[in-house]
## 1
Amino acid sequence: MATGRTHRPATRSRGIPEATVARLPLYLRALTALSERSVPTVSSEELAAAAGVNSAKLRKDFSYLGSYGTRGVGYDVEYLVYQISRELGLTQDWPVVIVGIGNLGAALANYGGFASRGFRVAALIDADPAMAGKPVAGMPVQHTDDLEKIISDNGVSIGVIATPAGAAQQVCDRLVAAGVTSILNFAPTVLTVPDGVDVRKVDLSIELQILAFHEQRKAGEESAADDGDGAAEPAVTKAQHRKGPDGDVPAVMPA
Amino acid sequence: MATGRTHRPATRSRGIPEATVARLPLYLRALTALSERSVPTVSSEELAAAAGVNSAKLRKDFSYLGSYGTRGVGYDVEYLVYQISRELGLTQDWPVVIVGIGNLGAALANYGGFASRGFRVAALIDADPAMAGKPVAGMPVQHTDDLEKIISDNGVSIGVIATPAGAAQQVCDRLVAAGVTSILNFAPTVLTVPDGVDVRKVDLSIELQILAFHEQRKAGEESAADDGDGAAEPAVTKAQHRKGPDGDVPAVMPA
DNA sequence: GACTGTGAAGACTTTCACAGCA
DNA sequence: TGCTGTGAAAGTCTTCACAGTC
């Protein structure tokens, strides 16, 4: 099974597990805060607490990077900040473009967290001619027509898509064709990309839906004190339901 | 993907794995699109493609909900929309408050994806007195002083935090004290909450950092064609590095 | 014949618990 | 003594592959 992988092949991360990679930014944030308070060293226990994970996990994560701690003492804060930054590729400058300057795109353009982590917003792009030239976050919005030129002139390899869902795939295709190989997608749609291009998505409503799921559980559990198969509601219960083409089930949702 | 929850052992989700729950909104979105095109049934293969997962995973996921398909045919779109909505708790109305009406908070307030999924923005709250009364997304911003009253008057159990990092924990504490049991956190900080409260976080810069990590790998791999232990760079390689209190390593990062 | 539902295998992730070093 | 680094165990998630059903 050489190349023909379906979609997300875990991207051969030179031994560092994906789950660990996803936590490195968390550690980095906690470490940066310590660094700003001039704390010289930190134990796995303390750092784990600051990052919101447990210490065994943190130590295991760090063990994939190397042996950067000192037994009996802990980790040198500055040194670890450097190592993690390097591992994440943050010691270099990453120009990014944001496409789709609506409410969300504008908020992203104004978001300080990017610049402070080695990301530089190289351009803001929107399809609306009326937006062109208007300043957002101190930077003139450019028109989609120039997308390809902007990408190549600035050597951009990371693109952020904040367009409506309908436009996202098209924008994505153009970004990829122009040389972008990493995409952060805020549009509520699935993007199809060729092999070698990474996509990460952030969907605001999905997060709320997951919360709602657990919230519903909590409410249900209040009544059923025992931990059984708490089928508190008279609703359809698991496998036993057989659907009919009609039945008592509402056929449509509140769209 | 942004995960949440401070620690807690998987919140007793009545058998449905957390990973499955996290994908239900994805399926729901794909199904809703099919429904709008009046597609009556769909196979696991088709739906999986539309949701960006593979079909085995999708079938396994659905098997946790019940036997809702028909062998040889596929799934009834409307029926599945209903079942998933119910499972996620979207057949009821969830009032939410957004605290922190800066760029991001305002973007969230304007975001259409909430309302269409059973979430109703009940109030916008900000600490800045100058914001109070100003309309955002057709709704007057209210002052933090009234937070507790707003929560209880509206029966809010889900809160969205979009404040600066420094204010987030305090806002969180007040939300929780007022009765909120689910929190979606956009502030780049770890929130501490009591047992029984769920937190999910979305951190924009973390997603970019993960992309940067993979981006850096891609750049590195270009040189090393063979798939060996591609230690292409002359940099520190795994466990063999021994740190000194100085050495050739820069001690400080570009903050 | 087509497609779902699911045990079983495999991969990945977390946690435990302790040896080993400063 | 105090704390890291890590094998091994436990737990979770994904994938396979095929029996079962329409």
## 2
Amino acid sequence: MKKYTEYKGLNLPEVDKEILKFWDENKVFDQSMNNRKDAPTYVFYEGPPSANGKPGIHHVMARTVKDLFCRYQTMKGKLVERKGGWDTHGLPIELSVEKELGITKEDIGTKITVEEYNTKCRETVMRYKDMWDDITVKMGYWVDLDDPYITFKNDYIESVWNLLKRLYDNGYLYKGYTIQPYSPAAGTGLSSHELNQPGCYRDVKDTSAVAQFRVIKNEDAKFLFDHADEDVCFIAWTTTPWTLPSNTALALGKKIDYVKVSTYNAYTGKPVSVILAKALIKKWFKEGADELDFDAYQQGDKKIPYRIAAEYKGEQLVGLRYEQLLPYQQPEEGDAFKVLHGNFVSTSDGTGIVHIAPSFGADDMMVGKQNGMGALTLVDKQGKFTDNVGEFSGRYVKNYKDNPDYKNVDIDISIKLKTENKAFNVQKYAHNYPHCWRTDKPILYYPLDSWFVKTTKAKDRMVELNKTINWKPAATGEKRFGNWLENLQDWNLSRSRFWGIPLPIWRTADGAEEKCIGSVADLQAEVAKSVEAGHMDAQIADDFDLHRPYIDNIVLTSSKGEPMKRELDLIDVWFDSGSMPYAQWHYPFENEEKFKANYPADFISEGVDQTRGWFFTLHAIAVMCFDSVAYKNVVSTGLLQAKDGRKMSKRLGNTVEPFKALDDYGADAIRWYMMSNSAPWENLKFDLDGVEEVRRKFFGTLYNTYSFYALYANVDAFYNKETSVPLAKRQEIDRWVISLLNTLKKEVDEDYANYEPSRATRKIMTFVDEHLSNWYVRLCRRRFWKGEKNEDKIAAYQTLYECLTTVAKLMSPVAPFFADFLYKNLNDATGQEAFNSVHLADFPVVDESVIDKDLEQRMNYAQRISSLVLSLRKREKIRVRQPLTKILLPVLDKAFREQVEGVKDLILSEVNVKSIEYITDTAGIITKKIKPNFKTLGRKLGKHMKSAAQVVAGFDQDIIAQIEQSGSYNFEVDGESIPLTLEDFIITSDDIEGWLVANDGPLTVALDVTLTDDLKAEGIARELVNRIQNIRKNKDFNVTDRIKVSIESHDALKPAIEQFGEYIKDEVLAVSLDLKAGVQGAEEVDLVDGLVVGILVER
RNA sequence: UCCGAUAUGGCGCAAUUGGUGAGCGCGUCCGCCUGAUACGCGGAAGGUUGCUGGUUCGAGUCCAGCUAUCGGGACCA
């Protein structure tokens, strides 16, 4: 017969290794799915990590969340397949390759071929795959890594193309332009990633100009003019005067207050009325100048007089027209040179009126688009003015070429404005401006061609379907994600890079005809036509690599036989990962059934930073292509911070190395700590001390409970083969713990089902720690080691066994290693269940019939009463081994006495007292306290509550007794009489005259501390038992060894030995107990109050 | 500047959804139990629940405003 394995101590990392070996050898993960082959599915999507970076401790957190719900659902009888995946494209990979090769973007295609470069990317992208595989295994994350989806595979790309084609066909793809950071010196757009590199934003001094835009005097503008020849101008500030020739609008704020100020132009001395924000007058006019005499002004005076002539709301000015400032070019389309409202306009800088050049600012373009403005782009991609800008034509707007003779265009433009009476103010201005990280030159914002997904078209549907998704936490879905959807912009899909999925769109040179390709077969069909038309030499192979540069060599043919070239862009990598529900199965080209059975996902989980990332792209593609959600439940996990609450970073040296942490503490302690510390969506301050605490308190206790069980079950050869003792025949405490266990099953089940792992883990901890170990086992110890293997003992074993196996199952989703270790140790010995792993077992089903809330209440009384008695003992300095005669207990209500009687023996043995005496108040010795029950009384009395509370506080003992007896009380207020019942009051015993009392809520306990000689003798006997047991233990005797005890004679011991000798012998398994003088080799032991005795214990 | 989250003893977290001495764990100090290499128990110290107002008989909880931290976005004319 196999025995329960007994261990020398708990070593969680060892447990991990042992269990991993077992899982591996028995293919337990496979089994857990194969067993459920025909079961309903629970679909999980794995968000693909990039193996280009090393895994961190936060990945352990994110993946614990994923793993635990998949394991839970498997135990609930679902088939949960977990296809892994790798994100393999994207800028971080390209940048790391560039860095490694010591090249820049411009070198690709010149110093190194695109082919070589992409080969390098393909090699690099899986650089840390081994490390990822390693951590996946070590942390116990069950995911299928044998057959993962990989985004750079042709099949995957083909599926993505299919999605793009669907979008294209439904009018979701269009070509437009956006304003992006652009480096003329490098000739390339910059990503926000590149822009956020340290040192990118620098303080520089530029020439800033406030220009005067002359208002056109028409019907609408009439109200601005006080006299016919008044010169009224809007003034707007810019730090980039080179954008002024491209100005097409002005923006102001509707709600901002503006003023018209009469003054003189500082450079020409001509009178002028300028309009600016009221709040900014002080910025542009000298103090006291509003009191100067206008007529006395001479050109060149330092102080220029001014007067506020009128005041307007921004709203009144919207729609007015002005003369073009520098009329070199007219915009080809749109309604330009108008005043618009812009919600970004503030009065913190400038004049409260913003110069708008739609080609050179993102806000500018947005406001221009919204108002149908035209645009002027009078600077080319080299950063110089185009040919049609008069005297400035061909000049660089910044010194991009390091020309030593470079003349600042901003200054020259400013001079021109001054001489033409168009400059209100020109000065140097220091500000923070982004620079290109490669060339160190200032960037400029420039319109670049891009392909867009018209997500705005599907916005309403996305919002609607989002409401059907269960977000954890809800606020992330409703607010964060919901708001994001409400303010949706079109999705810029284009990336001007090399390693990624190419945009499958071909165009003729004039853009008149374009084709979007949705599959390799489509492409081949088009290539066939092209070969016929003579644009290509040969058909492409079936396994033609769809990446650049090969794809760029494909030239298609238009309906008119013109060559069509591919649009050179790649698509945003977020589209790659958002396509995984389809592309992981190569849908729709293969696996249609598989796809349908696995769509949409029941559950996904990633970090909250994915709200605008993967969560969005999954949702957007699903809504636009399939009018469906992509996932039904989503848990967005919080950030993992260092223990000081700061971000973990290598620079601060506060990172936690995941492999070391796993090696030191084992996966379970870390997983359990992460889940129990706070809800997964809260930020977690990760502290290894907390992991250690979990290990000690939870796993240590549970392990020890098992050890205790194993020790005695082996002695008694208990393998749970006996008929189960009916609950009715078991002790009260057995029924109690089984009742709690079933409550636990129920609640933990609900918590897991509701994606609330911290609630579940905390409840399991409380059960194991407080109830099972420190109450059940503690109080039942004797049943396990005393006496014969009778029914009561079997009942105890059966009860504990059930608790342990059930806990193993309940905890297994979060702590898969230890749970299996525990389960196997138990089940392998008993063979009770057919499963050889807890992960193949079913989730425990609650038995409502054994949940007895009354019993739980009783036991709660027992625990609290015991605790009160112990506190009294402490106060009186009477040790627990000293028996006492009785406890006095005031009776709270009728049920109370009965309830306490049910657990009386437990209390008495726990606190070492002989009896309980109940007292009712007939003797008048109990002082009572009364308090309103706010919850019930508040509803009845409402605003009279306050006065009622005062009245109640004034009740004396007589009134309290009266209320208790009659069970009712009439509260008089404002001539009104409100009947109250006993329920509306909380009456507690406060004191018992002449006794030592302690209180805990309604409970009051008094203790009789009189010590008789008999009690003293018994106390000494108990002390002796304790000392002898300690000696046994120190001598490493087996718990079953019989011993001989000799004690050095002492008067104080005689009564104890005489009266309780048999008791002592029985307790310590002694065959003899002698009290004699001159014991050889006795141990000196401090017994009580400085009484030292010599004891000899022999086998 | 906008959006979101968070704010409770030294630290980490609770508080049954508005009901009244604000709990638990860690840590510190004193004491105890242990036939279980684990845990626990009793006691002590430690709180104006970020601030200010409001609603209410009653607010840690609801509302408004503010502050701080974190995250995300926009912008830096």
